[in-house]
Amino acid sequence: MSMLDQRLLQDLEKVVGEAGLVRDEQRLQSYLSDWRNAYRGKAALVVRPASTEQVAAVVRLCSAAGVALVPQGGNTGLCGGSIPDGSGTQVVLSLTRMTQIRDVDAGNETITVEAGVLLQRLQEAAAEAGRLFPLSLGAEGSCTVGGNLATNAGGTAVLRYGNMRDLVLGLEVVLPDGRIWNGLRGLRKDNTGYDLKHLFVGSEGTLGIITAAVLKLYPAVRSRTTAWVALPSPQAAVDLIGRMRALCGDRLTGFELMSRQSVEFVLRHVAGCSELFAEPHPWYVLIELSDTLVDAPLAEMLESGLGEAFEQGEALDAVVASSEAQVAALWKLREGISEAQNHEGPSLKHDISVPVSRIPAFIAQADARLQQAFPGVRIVAYGHVGDGNLHYNISKPLGSEDAPFKAQAEAIMQLIYDVTAAFAGSISAEHGLGQAKREAARRYKDPLELELMRTLKNALDPAGLMNPGKLL
Ligand code: FAD
Ligand code: 2HG
Ligand code: ZN
Questions:
Q1: pLDDT for position 393
Q2: Which of 91, 153, 229, 285 has its CA 20 to 30 A from that of 187?
Q3: For position 52, what pLDDT does the model report?
Q4: Mean per-residue pLDDT for 167-183?
């Protein structure tokens, strides 16, 4: 805090009041590192404005003083995007006091919310209006709408409803110079030039501060069937998702792939999870069908699809949840992987995507090359098959120390990203670049695309005060 000019501090306090500043060393800590403690920074101050006007005033003051801002929502991002650098000169701008649900327009099937609203609260508000807000991910109890937009979050319902970019109709943004752009339009058609809102979606706080959004609502889901299926291979998963899609169309709302290694970590570390089959299988998928009808014949559809899959050798075993508690248990087995892997030492995260059809070949090649170059590393592969998105994460060999494994992290990452590039894939499917993948993006992204991105950044934020050191 001593790094901040006293005059600026007083001016900021006039804007947000004492309640809007975090100065206490103890309280500051939760804003300065991520949930895994993989990234740690220092900050001159944490500011928590409670309205768009306050955000704009904070941005204007910091801009005039040449002080860099790090926007932060729930701080659940996995690439260190919301963590300040180590200089102690940056100000963290937390949106967590902006929690108003401004409007629900049932006729327009939209909801207007502020950036600090928790994703789970948004889902609840949609449910209270008899609607569905479909974005769903493991951190939904802690992450915010602003963070979801700024990272273009994905999760487990993308195959049916799309990612955050597909769910937004309008935005309110405080620009780097402190002006407020009111783009809170609830229009499904608007071809009046460049679609500016999409610039800010996925911009990870580098172009401005998202303060509110108009989001799409969908009809509430009234029936659901969930199954856990054992498979012989990733190819079986690709075949099975094609089969289920052909059979069920849009009723297929979840299709998550997990390797045996991923599930073993959950069984070992997450309380209340248990083995579902008498013997282990190399791969599993969690399938969810849902419908807006109360009595949709989902169980029959699932049975029919799985029957064919057993005949074709795509499926080896299956359990179908018969109660809400069992549904929750199946999702826990899937959603617990991220946390479980933390108990096995450092987890090297590679959130990659390839064309869905190429997932099996990607896994075969990456597995073979990794085991040859880094014998014994444990591959924790799982993810959102319908999106071609794998979390191809790596844990250290059993019984080995953290330090030598961490020393190999860069080389392991490069191997995996090289294979990803060879399959025409992306090195960040849904988590963004943050500080984790900024360097790698320079190597794997088209130079012309990077140049265009820099042009946009310079046009909007010429002083480079919006989340410097992230993304670009
Ligand atoms: P933060 O972590 O606070 O910030 C993320 C980035 O957005 C930072 O660059 C920050 O500067 C910027 N930012 C935040 N708020 C704003 C704002 N209002 N305006 C401008 N910039 C802003 N992600 C997925 O896509 N799919 C998943 O399935 C998924 N599962 C997860 C499971 C777990 C257990 C965890 C911990 C994370 C998971 N994530 C997943 C990561 C995901 O990106 C986040 O959970 C979420 O989208 C980030 O929201 P947040 O509010 O925590 O943002
Ligand atoms: C998931 O799908 C999340 O569970 C987190 O995107 C992935 O922790 C990870 O690597
Ligand atoms: Zn994911």
A1: 98
A2: 153
A3: 98
A4: 98
Q: In a 3-state reduction of DSSP, which class is residue 435?
A: coil
Q: Residue 1 above 50 pLDDT?
A: no
Residue 84, Cβ density class (10 Å: 0-12 exposed, 13-18 middle, ≥19 buried): buried
From-to residues of CATH 3.30.43.10 in the chain:
6-94
Average pLDDT over residues 124-130: 98
pLDDT, residue 24, reads 87
Question: Which class is domain 344-432?
Answer: alpha beta
Q: Which ligand is nearest to the CA of 94?
A: 1
State which CATH number among 3.40.50.1000, 3.30.70.2190, 1.10.940.10, 3.40.190.10 fits the domain covering 223-338.
3.30.70.2190
Angle at 344 between CA 341 and CA 350, to 5 degrees: 45
**pTM metric for this prediction:** 0.98
- Region of residue 51 (phi > 0: left; psi between -120 and 50: alpha; otherwise: beta): beta
**Number of alpha carbons in the 13 Å side-chain half-sphere of residue 118:** 11
Neighbouring C-beta atoms of residue 301, cutoff 10 Å: 19
Q: What residues are in contact with ligand 2 under a 6 Å CB criterion? A: 78, 138, 337-338, 349, 391, 393
Please give the pLDDT value at position 4. Answer: 85
Q: CA-CA-CA-CA torsion for 443, 445, 447, 453, nearest 10 degrees?
A: -120
User: What tokens does 397 get?
Assistant: 């060999």
pLDDT tens string 10-51: 999 999 999 999 988 889 999 999 988 999 999 999 999 999
The amino acid occupying position 171 is L
CA of 112 to the centre of ligand 1 (A): 19
- Residue span(s) of the chain under CATH 3.30.70.2740 come to 344-432
74 C-alpha vs ligand 1 centroid, how far in Å? Answer: 7
CATH node for 101-219 = 3.30.465.10
List the residue whose alpha carbon is closest to atom 9 of ligand 2: 338
- Running DSSP on this structure, what letter comes out for residue 316? S
Task: State the number of CA atoms in the 13 A half-sphere of 322 facing the CB.
Answer: 2
pLDDT for the residue numbered 171:
98
CA of 256 to the centre of ligand 3 (A): 9
Residue 151 CA to ligand 1 centre (angstroms)? 6
Residue 180 and residue 56 in contact, taking contact as beta carbons nearer than 8 Å: yes
Residue partners of 188: CB distance under 8 A and separation at least 6:
169
CA angle 410, 414, 417 (to 5 degrees): 135
**Is 70 in contact with 83 (CB distance < 8 Å)?**
yes
Please, is 10 exposed, middle or buried when counting C-beta atoms within 10 Å of its C-beta (0-12, 13-18, 19+)? Answer: exposed
